[in-house]
Structure formats: C-alpha cells, structure tokens
Amino acid sequence: MEKEEFRRHGYEFIDWLADYFEQVEEYPVKSTVKPGEIKGLLSKDPPGTGEPMEKIFNDFKETIIPGITHWQHPGWFAYFPANNSPASVLAELLTAGLGVQSMIWQTSPAAAELEEVVMQWLARMLGLPGTMSGVIQDTASTATLCALLTAREKATGFEANRAGLKQPLRVYASEEGHSSIDKAVKIAGYGIENLRRVPTDERYALVPGELERAVNEDKRQGLEPACVVATVGSTSSAAVDPLKEIGEICNRYNLWFHVDAAYGGTAALLPEKRWALGGVEAADSFVFNPHKWMLTNFDCSAYFVKDEELLTRTFEIHPEYLKTGYDAVVKNYRDWGIQLGRRFRALKLWFVIRSYGIKGLQDVIREHIRLAETFKSWVEEDERFELMAPVDFSLVCFRFKKKGVSEDELNRLNKLLLEKVNGSGRVFLTHTSLNGSYVIRISIGQRTTTEKNVREAWDLIKSFASSL
Ligand SMILES: Cc1ncc(COP(=O)(O)O)c(C=O)c1O
Predict the structure, then answer these.
(1) Which of 29, 108, 260, 464 could form a disulfide with 420 if both were Cys (CB 3.0 to 4.6 A apart)?
(2) Residue 264: inside a domain, yes or no?
(3) Which of 263, 301, 432 has most ligand 1 atoms within 8 Å of its beta carbon, as the pocket-test mutant?
(4) What are the CA-CA distances from residue 234 to residues 81, 277, 444, 463 (Å)?
C-alpha cells in the first residue's frame, strides 16, 4: 500500500469510527444473526492475490458489522462493560502503527518506562499502597493465574517450579468468586479439588469466620492452605468481600492474599467508594481492569504485587539471546508474567488518564453509579419487582415477582421477560443466579449511556412485565 493510499484509508476509517460512535445507537445492541450465518458469508478460501482495500472495507461493513454485538452502544447493560473512548482508540492506532513488542526494556525503553509510570499513577488514583509495583496483563484471568503461580512458588520455596508440585496446596475463594479462579487453579497445577468455595452472607460477601474454619479443617486433615482470592465487585452481584478480615486471616496462617477487583476496582477512583478497598494493604497481589469500566479499550488489566521479586523469580528466564547490558538496572517485563512478547498497552492508559484527568474519569464513574441508584429506586417503588442484591457500584440485580407463584415459575417468567426485553434490540441485559433464583442484571458502564437509555430499559421491562 502506497503512503497516500494508507493516508486516505486512515482518514476514511477514522471518519467511519467517528460516525459509528455517534450512530451506534441505531444498531440492535445484540447481533441478531444465527449461528453459522456469518461463516456462510465468508469466502472459504484465502485470496491468492491481494484485494483492494475498498473491497475489504466494504465487506467489513456488509458482512462483519451485522455479526457485531455493540459493546459501545449506550443500551449496553450486559455482563460488565468493556468501554472505550476516543483517546484510547487513537492511542491504540498509534500502538498498532509503532508495532512495538515490549518484551524487554531495550525493545522499547519508552514502553517499559511508561508502563512503570502509568502503573504508579493508577496505584495512587485507587489509593493502593505506594509499595506495590504494577504490570499490565492482558486480562484479569491472566493476572489471577500469575497470582496463583506466585503463591504456589512462595508456598513451596520455589520447589514447584523446579521439581513440580509434590503435595496438594489449597486455594480459597467465596462461592461468588469468578470462574477465572477455577481456571487458574486448574492451569497452575493445584487441581480443582483443592479449590474450596467459602460460603457467603446475605450480601453475597465471603464470611471470614467460614474461611478460617475451612483453613483449620484443611490443616487438621494434613492439607496445606496456600492462597485466598477475595473479590471486590463479584460478577453476579458486585459483592465486596471484607478485605481487612480476610487479610488478617491470611496473615495469621501465612497465606497468599490475592484481590480480584476486575470490575469494582475502578470505583475506588471515587473517594466515597474507597471503603471497598479498605484492608487492601494486606494484599500480596491485586488486579483491576481498566478495560472494563475505565474507558480503556480491551485489553488492559492492571496487576499489582507487594513483592516484585517473588513475581519475577516465579517467571524469570535468562536465555542468552535475551541478555542485555541493562538487565541489572531496568525492568524487563517479560519476567512479570506468562508470555514473552507483550503489546504496548501502557500508551492507551496514558492517553486516557491524560485526556480525562482524574476528575474526568471520576465524573464518568460517578454518573454511572448515580444511574444505577436511580434504577434501583425505580425497582423499589414498583411492587411488581424486587431488588435481589445490594447496590454499591453500577450494577443492579432485580427480578419480576408475582404473588402465589412458585420459584420455578418465577424463574421461567424472568427468563421470558429478559428475552423479550433483549428482543427489542434497544438494550442488552444479562442474567445470573443468586441463591437459586433467576436474576436480571442491569450493568451500567458504557461511556455514552445517559438517563434516557436507562429509562428506556426500565420502560421496556415494565411494559413487557405487564404481559407476563
Ligand atoms: C470479578 C471478575 N473477575 C475476573 C473477570 C475476568 O476478567 P477478564 O476477562 O479480564 O479475564 C471478570 C469478568 O467479568 C470478573 O467479573
């Protein structure tokens, strides 16, 4: 591609994206294609010779876009958000253009040093202990895997890395902890039978007394407790585990303490929500996802550790071809995680934080929380509905209720209600199960969502509920 052609298409793509951001509301939020439909439209064979960009871009609009579920739609209320922002997208374009692979300091000193600095910024923005060091991982799943691998090495004095795990180690998380913990437990060689799910209270938060009981029971049976994963903002209901009490238990029994704040961590940008991280000083590791709620496009997960030496000792490798004269004085992030090759993700974080400023980010998060509280008040005022979990952040769990109807029937009706609401194409909400009840979640966090969109969701819910 010639320079002028590249320039022309670049302008064209940015124009398209600028219009997309403005017009995304006109698409159905959730793609309406059937399984296999997009595959059926794609050529079975790769082209033998190069095709013109006009044709490729046209196919993108005609073939790919119909199969896109629009995460940046203001009616996005599903799962948790994965929001972005113009600043982030522009930075990502530069990242792609630079094509940097920042495995070690010398493969791009600015990438390594910017990563160190933006992670220090983030730690300060969330009120994390200044002694923690940060590294960007692709996802919270990877960060939690890193935590469990480091916990394993600490518990075995780095013997597991050398000779393999000789005896089982136990991992604890609440019944509401994310499925990435199961995955990490499996991959890190603990074995899924060694993950103990600890009961939760009426707020779906881990009960510290139950954790201690489980640890003692395991010790009595000759098993070795190694690690606890606490959650700030659980996936089903945004529950917050009591970090202070959990930290004290970890301290008493010498357990690795990992905090998964993938979604909820961003709320700590607000002084009024800092309570959620109270006790985080005791954590050995902590993760939150700027790619969820902090306007930084996927993927970008911020992982912090108290003792960076334990982390790097777990992952370090020293092949001759990667040795440089700077190794003693710089951070080589290849040793801070699983993969060798690393994307230059710090750039988009830097762009986002600088273009919004702390105040700008706080305004966005505070507004999402206000919208969730508004939605919560509507649910509370309507006797046909009930709240199913406390609302601390921007997630509301609720359901339709009906007198004299069995739990099974209520589950069926709520499932039907959700299908009808999502069938409108105007909004997309998802569900979960809390104490065996089918619960509808409205998760507010798309950058451009306003009260009008939340009101529209509520009006749709009410109107379909009338026909149930
Ligand atoms: C609490 C929690 N932890 C971890 C994850 C996994 O995040 P990721 O997709 O970054 O691995 C999620 C995803 O929603 C989550 O809600």
Answers:
(1) 464
(2) yes
(3) 263
(4) 14, 13, 15, 30
